[in-house]
Design brief:
Keywords: Oxidoreductase
Protein name: NAD(P)-dependent dehydrogenase (Short-subunit alcohol dehydrogenase family)
Low-confidence stretches: none
Strand order of the largest sheet: 3-2-1-4-5-6-7
Largest sheet: 7 strands, parallel
Pfam families: adh_short_C2 (PF13561)
GO molecular function: oxidoreductase activity
Order of helices and strands: HEHEHEHEHEHEHHHHEHEEH
Family: Belongs to the short-chain dehydrogenases/reductases (SDR) family.
Strand content: 5-15%
CATH topology: Rossmann fold
Helix content: 40-55%
């Protein structure tokens, strides 16, 4: 370990802490679980994908940490309570909780039935409220404060047509997080959000209708890359590791006075607010100009 690494580890103070990652078995959640374990954190995870979770548990144990796991649908209130009961028995207290679970699908609001609306609200807001309530009890049991990190989305901060209920539920999670940061601040319990945009995850891929997902599959990586470079100021989607790094920061003592914020880990898309880097010399503008328009609408050129 280099001096720089030792200095940062000491300042972060993560080694020996205990975390729960809700949805920590695969994808983004697995990346977070493994980053915490590598930082010296004991981890409890739940997920609906048993196979992926088994792989993640084995890798986390490979870092020498204690790992608890449970096959649980976090959107089921009874199942989520049972997971927290297991964590209480196994760990006794927590320092860090990360609520990763979420998801949606692209559709017009008027085509959603009430069951689909209720599911979108529960998996993007409802379970978070329950998880935070149980998490606070376990953080209080540790007597040294702690960090709760809720995953929201860029869609909570813009008008997301065809993802309206999802966007509304994530906005509720965002403001709930801010409110709880104020309510629990004097106890040393910090709450923050991470708002990703496009990330390489199964959840994002499954949000698209099958026909759109299939059409993406027919595009070359070079073409997809050029599209992302137009949309994302940094030029490419943030990898899962970037989201895990944000969790490590917010969970650590490096962020000891950071509470109630939303950290946008999106490569700059929130900052761009609709400015795209159009090709053919148009550059960063909200709407294509004379360089690009003839290629989009050749019949009107």
């Amino acid at each position: 370990m280099s001096e720089a690494q030792g200095f940062l580890d000491q300042r972060a103070g993560l080694f020996g802490r205990k975390a729960a990652v809700i949805g920590g078995g695969g994808g983004i959640g697995a990346g977070i679980t493994l980053a915490l374990a590598e930082a010296g954190v004991d981890v409890a995870i739940c997920d609906i994908d048993q196979d992926q979770m088994a792989v993640t548990v084995a890798e986390a144990k490979g870092h020498g940490r204690e790992v608890l796991s449970a096959l649980v649908d976090a959107t089921d209130p009874a199942a989520l309570d049972s997971f927290y009961d297991e964590v209480t028995q196994g760990f006794g207290n927590l320092d860090i909780v990360v609520n990763v679970v979420g998801g949606t699908f692209r559709t017009s609001f008027m085509e959603m039935d009430r069951d689909a609306i209720a599911r979108d609200i529960q998996r993007n807001y409802g379970y978070v409220v329950q998880s935070v309530q149980r998490a606070v009890q376990l953080i209080r049991a540790g007597g040294r404060g702690g960090s709760i990190i809720n995953f929201t989305t860029i869609e909570a901060h813009r008008g997301a047509a065809s993802f309206s209920v999802y966007a509304g539920a994530k906005a509720a999670t965002t403001n709930f997080t801010r409110s709880m940061a104020v309510e629990l601040g004097k106890e040393g319990i910090r709450l923050n959000c991470i708002a990703p945009d496009t990330t390489p995850s199964n959840g994002n891929n499954s949000a698209m209708p099958p026909e759109i997902a299939a059409s993406f599959a027919n595009l070359s990586p070079e073409t997809m890359g050029k599209g992302m470079a137009m949309y994302i100021p940094i030029g490419s989607p943030p990898p899962i590791a970037a989201l895990a790094n944000a969790v490590l920061f917010l969970a650590s003592d490096l962020a000891a006075f950071v509470s109630g914020i939303t950290m946008h880990v999106d490569g700059g898309t929130m900052a761009a607010a609709g400015f795209l880097d159009w090709p053919y010399g148009d550059g960063f503008v909200p709407v294509a100009l004379s360089g690009t328009l003839p290629y989009i609408f050749p019949e009107n050129a």
